[in-house]
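OP here, attaching both records as promised.
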Amino acid sequence: FSSSSLLFFSQSSLSSLLFFSPSLVSHLISLFMTCILLRAPRPLCVMCYAEHIADKCAVCNKGINPLPGHGGKISLNGSNWHAECFNCSVCQETLNGKPCIPKPEGLFCKPCYAKYKAQKKKH
């Protein structure tokens, strides 16, 4: 076994013993570190994690990738957004790092909410 590396994957009480060449093991570990998320009872690729488990964006309804360097997640009042989707519902300006007014009708920047509120009073 000197030319092979051993990897053990545990699933419940069963363990599988797999034999790989050292270069393949190195590649698999690199792939694992960047693309696989451990989630009981089995590992998932990032795409499956985003589709089935990750928090969904309130605007686009797509999963929010939890890995560093993917824009991050903004959470407010129990809702979640991709950073690029966290925009004013009226003018579409980003609200990331800015004051915002969350309403059932959408997210508003201060100027757009003032206009919305004034228009609502007229009706």
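Record two, same layout:
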Amino acid sequence: MIPTGEITPVEGTPYDFRRAGRIGDVIGRLPTEGYDHNWCIASGPGGEPVSAAHLYCPSSGIGMEVLTTQPGLTVYTGNFLSKSLIGANGEVMDKHSAVCLETQNYPNAPNVVSDCLSGLSAQISALCTFASSQCVCEP
């Protein structure tokens, strides 16, 4: 996929995760092999981190929240994993058996954001908090 800079509305599509839902329930409606897409995140006041994503597994009770100062969140769903990969505890890592959340600038930012490369250094901030039904774990 080549980034075009177009920001497309997600309402009514399998890209609409503004309300909680199972990725597995909508991934089959995608025109691609799975998710490998960047979502636009509304910025916080004064550059404060904002909540970009929540993941929760009902069977384990484990949840994760991602906060970021970055304008984008790329979601990748292990589209090319195969049953030949074995993970922790002998778990088979099949297609779509994992999800990766990457906070970042827009993939096409050097071509569309005027101040993207204006400085020689940049501060990138992301914070992930984890919780379970047993405890809350924060850095």
